[in-house]
Design goal:
Pathway: Nucleotide-sugar biosynthesis; UDP-N-acetyl-alpha-D-glucosamine biosynthesis; alpha-D-glucosamine 6-phosphate from D-fructose 6-phosphate: step 1/1. Its EC number is 2.6.1.16. This is glutamine--fructose-6-phosphate transaminase (isomerizing). The chain has about 850 residues and is an alpha/beta fold. It has three domains: about 325 residues, Aminohydrolase, N-terminal nucleophile (Ntn) domain (Glutamine Phosphoribosylpyrophosphate, subunit 1, domain 1, 4-Layer Sandwich), CATH 3.60.20; about 350 residues, Glucose-6-phosphate isomerase like protein, domain 1 (Rossmann fold, 3-Layer(aba) Sandwich), CATH 3.40.50.10490; about 130 residues, no CATH class. It contains 28 helices and 28 strands. The strands form five sheets. The chain has an eight-stranded antiparallel β-sheet, with helices on one face. An eight-stranded mixed β-sheet has the order 5-6-7-8-12-13-14-28. α12 runs parallel beside α16 and α12 runs antiparallel to α19. It starts with a strand and ends in a 6-residue tail after the last helix. The structure holds 6-O-phosphono-alpha-D-glucopyranose. 6-O-phosphono-alpha-D-glucopyranose binds next to α12.
Length: about 850
């Protein structure tokens, strides 16, 4: 995964030093996406002055400057300033208009080296420059073709074909007499030849002070900051904000993190869109693969109108504040992140005193899920562990068998997934390639696909049938902490929602809901172990290995605790099922190897006591996590090191128990002198591959059209019978309405966060304080919901809603159809 960023100032004077700092800062915000090399491109002096006259001949222009450096962002910053000093480049030179691009890389094709860093270039004159996040799968074929046309390649990247292809298209158009070919026409033609998943930003000498961004796959946002009077009061549905050509600053970024310090007005660029920034105007084109094909001319696609959204994210969220590291901040944020995860979703009180949960993105699909033959949890890493922690309560409350799949393993074995299955995809980023491939596979096999993610508008949010955002807020540390606990809480709420209102388990459901209300306070209590865990870390600093034993609800805690230690402290650590101890791991036990045993109160407590006895008998060096007041019961001779944690309802205990292990991993890492937030060889998200998903959509449309027809006939013959096929077909029909003929110029207004990006209906209805990445205008209109003040006290500030607040605002069908009709699908 990589991060791309761009900054364009229009009719606003900015010095070169300022422009450089904006670009560097953008990269710093994106560094978590990849950090083995970085690069930027800005204008040189002569090209800048001539750029004011776009008609000046290219021969008179000086190519843009390109700086590329191996290592982290700060290595790039250092090398740029060294270069500036050596070349006497004027940092105080002011630009009325200027377009700069930047990239932070996580190597996939070619080792980290300046030649493989971005921007990648078309030629020594840097006529076209490109920064890229994603993978071009057909780059070899394109490369061979371009080599035949005289291009020489200097990198091993898949990206280099893109600027070269742009130059090829531009030169060809000019050779054929089309001297008026626009930047967007060139890029649309380039896109037509690219296969894979990508988000791209183009800069060109031929189009000074312009930028083009496009995407098919990887995330990309546009930020808009205007300087004219009265703008603050302008509506987000005022399309003139994008069209008025007034002084403004425009930003493009892979992540909202890099935008929020400049502006909160954003546009989430959708797949297949080409965004052209020119003369203070933002034009958006929809890429249609068929347009321009075989007609020999470049396509002239009409533009579409989009409204801006407001970013509901504060700069503090992306700053470390008083903390030294993001991981530390995110561990300590958990009482708050859990509150926002639950806010507006727990219902308690009302006349009938009923307790339940309301999950807007799931409520229309609960019946279908309840009829599933099986629920399959699918995820990777921490997300898999979170699902494992939630499995017992889901099985218990739903009565449906729940199986676990590591995403890559499911794809490798092509494991059985049936149309009677509900497949739940758990992913913090919503972009993990393995999870996306498993999603494609499960969709192909007809399962109902449910997403659980922290990222609004992510590939998982867009490509699943329904789902729940965890709303944990931005998580920047590579090792997931607060997202993990929020994922468990969301899945506990999903279990409650699926369980419905059956009388047999009402008492249990009430206990779990009470536990949820109280959880943030209990997490606050357990965070007080910070110093104790630091002391423990000091004792373990030189160890080679650490074992963690858990069972039942806390088998997942053992896996996740060990994963944290492994990921950041770079210490070998294994999470083990305590029930398996005597079937092998016991052989490892001696007086040197530190072993953590999780033995908090639940149905497995006595078994864990027995495990402790056995380990103790073999002189095991034990650290026991137990419930408060249980020290004597778990450490008979007083020989174990004890960590006492608050007790909560059993199914939520993993949320409490992981916290000391997160703190241990954090302190071990700091004490061992390693990088906490960017551990060796790990990045937060893997590259996504949406090509498969795009293909799937095409296939899905065809099959579903046929299915719909068949079902309509069946329904007519068998009416009034209603079955789950109809449920599902209707659902998918809404999401896969075939392309309609109509004008390209459409206003897409009134979208909620999920809807805007093809996400889940109802999930845009978040709450006032929800720190989700995007909270567009319509979602905000939901905020004035009746809150029962009597019930808000003593419940950790969670809101209570006596009745469903779910919005009925939906995009009119024609608008859904429009957006779907432009999804690019390559055959
Ligand atoms: C990567 C990260 C892990 C993370 C996993 C799943 O491998 O290094 O820390 O748990 O991806 O990420 P996701 O975004 O899908 O939850």
């Amino acid at each position: 995964m990589c991060g791309i960023f761009a900054y364009l100032n229009y009719n606003v004077n900015r010095e070169r030093r300022y422009i450089l700092e904006v670009l560097f800062n953008g990269l710093r915000r994106l560094e978590y996406r990849g950090y083995d090399s970085a690069g930027i491109s800005i204008d040189s002096s002569l090209s800048a002055s001539l750029s004011r006259d776009p008609n000046s001949p290219l021969s008179l222009r000086v190519p843009p400057l390109v700086f590329r450096q191996e290592g982290r962002i700060e290595s790039l910053v250092k090398s740029v300033y060294e270069n500036v000093a050596a070349t006497d480049l004027d940092l105080e030179e002011s630009f009325c208009a200027h377009a700069g691009i930047a990239h932070t890389r996580w190597a996939t094709h070619g080792e980290p080296a300046p030649r493989n860093s971005h921007p990648q270039t078309s030629d020594p004159g840097n006529e076209f420059l490109v920064v890229h996040n994603g993978v071009i799968t057909n780059y070899q074929v394109l490369k061979e073709t371009l080599v035949r046309h005289g291009f020489t390649f200097e990198s091993e990247t898949d990206t280099e074909v893109i600027p070269k292809l742009a130059k090829f298209v531009f030169d060809k158009a000019n050779e054929e007499g089309d001297h008026g070919v626009t930047f967007s026409q060139v890029v649309l033609e380039v896109m037509r030849h690219l296969e894979g998943a990508y988000a791209l930003i183009f800069k060109s000498q031929h189009y000074p002070n312009e930028l083009i961004a496009c995407k098919r796959g990887g995330p990309l946002l546009l930020g808009v900051k205007e300087f004219s009077e009265g703008i603050a009061a302008s509506s987000f549905h005022d399309f003139n904000v994008l069209k008025n050509g007034k002084p403004k600053e425009l930003f493009l970024s892979s992540d909202a993190n890099a935008l929020v310090e400049h502006t909160k007005k954003v546009l989430m660029i959708e797949d297949g869109e080409v965004v052209h920034l020119k003369d203070g105007v933002v034009s958006i084109f929809k890429f249609d693969n068929d347009k321009g094909k075989n007609c020999g001319a470049l396509s002239r696609t009409a533009s579409v109108q989009r409204a801006l959204s407001i970013l509901e994210m504060e700069v503090e969220q992306i700053n470390k504040g008083s903390y030294e590291h993001y991981m530390q901040k995110e561990i300590h944020e958990q009482p708050e992140s859990l509150k926002t995860t639950m806010r507006g979703r727990l219902i308690r009180g009302g006349s009938c005193k009923a307790k339940s949960v309301l999950l807007g993105g799931l409520k229309d699909h609960l019946k279908t899920i309840r009829r599933s033959r099986r629920i399959v949890f699918i995820g990777c890493g921490t997300s898999y562990n979170a699902a494992l922690a939630a499995r017992p309560i889901l099985e218990e409350l739903s009565g449906i068998p729940v199986t676990m799949e590591i995403a890559s393993d499911l794809v490798d074995r092509q494991g059985p997934i049936y149309r009677e299955d509900t497949a739940v995809f758990v992913s913090q980023s919503g972009e993990t390639a393995d999870t996306l491939q498993a999603l494609q596979y499960a969709s192909e096999n007809g399962a109902l696909c449910v997403g659980i993610t922290n990222t609004v508008g992510s590939a998982i949010a867009r490509n699943t049938h329904c789902g729940v955002h965890i709303n944990a807020g931005a998580e920047i540390g590579v090792a997931s902490t607060k997202a993990y606990t929020s994922q468990i809480v969301v899945m506990a709420m999903v279990s409650l929602a699926i369980a419905g209102d059956t009388i047999s388990n009402q008492e249990r459901r009430d206990a779990v809901i009470d536990g949820l209300y109280d959880l943030p306070n209990k997490v606050r209590d357990v965070l007080e172990l910070d110093q104790e865990m630091k002391e423990l870390a000091k004792l373990l600093i030189a160890e080679q290995s650490l074992l963690v034993f858990g069972r039942g609800y806390n088998y997942a805690t053992a896996l996740e605790g060990a994963l944290k230690v492994k990921e950041v402290a770079l210490m070998h650590s294994e999470g083990m099922l305590a029930g398996e101890m005597k079937h092998g791991p016991l052989a490892l036990v001696d007086e040197n190897l530190p072993i953590v045993v999780i033995a908090t109160r639940d149905a497995c407590f006595s078994k864990q006591q027995s495990v402790i006895q056995q380990l103790h008998a073999r002189k095991g060096r034990l650290i026991v996590i137990c419930s408060k007041g249980d020290a004597a019961s778990v450490s008979p001779g007083g020989l174990c090191r004890i960590i006492e944690v608050p007790q909560v309802v059993d199914c939520l205990q993993p949320v409490i128990n992981i916290v000391p292990l997160q703190l241990l991993a954090y302190h071990l890492t700091v004490l061992r002198g390693y990088n906490v937030d960017q551990p060796r060889n790990l990045a937060k998200r893997e590259l996504l591959n949406e090509l498969f998903i795009s293909r799937l959509r095409l296939l899905g449309q065809v099959i579903l059209m046929m299915l719909l027809l068949a079902l309509k006939v069946k329904a007519y013959v068998e009416r009034p019978q209603v079955n789950r096929d109809e449920d599902r077909t209707l659902l998918r029909t809404l999401q896969n309405v075939p392309p309609v003929e109509g004008p390209l110029e459409q206003e897409i207004v009134g979208q909620s966060a999920g809807e805007q990006t093809g996400g889940w209906q109802g999930e845009g209805v978040l709450n006032e304080e929800t720190p989700s990445v995007l909270l567009p205008e319509l979602a905000q209109t939901q905020l004035e919901l009746p809150v029962n003040p009597a019930n808000t006290e003593g419940n950790a500030g969670l809101e209570e809603r006596p009745e469903s607040p779910i919005s009925s605002s939906r995009i009119p069908l024609t608008e859904v159809a429009l957006s779907v009709s432009f999804i690019s699908v390559r055959s």
